[in-house]
Amino acid sequence: VKVPSSEVFVRIDKARGILNDMGSLASRRKAALTEISTAKAALLTTQGNLTTLQGEVTTMLGDRGECPTCHTFCDTPHLSEQAG
């Protein structure tokens, strides 16, 4: 029976190390993708909330009679109103 040289064992150990590193990288990639997905969902929720709140503020200001052009309580016509 021929015994492999020590170089073969060194190469096997190196290959094992590479495989372990690849497994670790795959785990880190999966965790990062999960974090990205979670952050994206949170961003979409926040964007939806912002749009809703902007609409609510616009409604509240409109109900109070604030001018959408100059954002004050005025009685003067503005260019945007005259153009329409």
Give an overview of the whole structure.
- This protein has 84 residues and is mostly helical.
- The chain is built from two helices and no strands.
- The longest helix has 59 residues, at 6-64.
Provide a count of the helices.
Answer: 2
Strand content: under 5%
From the N-terminal CA to the C-terminal CA, the straight-line distance is 97 Å
Judging from the principal axes of the Cα atoms, what is the shape? rod-shaped
Helix content: over 70%
Structural class: mainly alpha
**Radius of gyration, whole Å:** 32 Å
Regions with little confidence, pLDDT below 50 for 5+ residues: none
Mean pLDDT: 84
Q: Please give the largest β-sheet.
A: none
The number of E-state strands comes to 0
Order of helices and strands: HH
Secondary structure layout:
Layout: H1 6-64, H2 79-83
In short:
The protein has 84 residues and is mostly helical.
Key descriptive features of the protein:
76% helix, rod-shaped
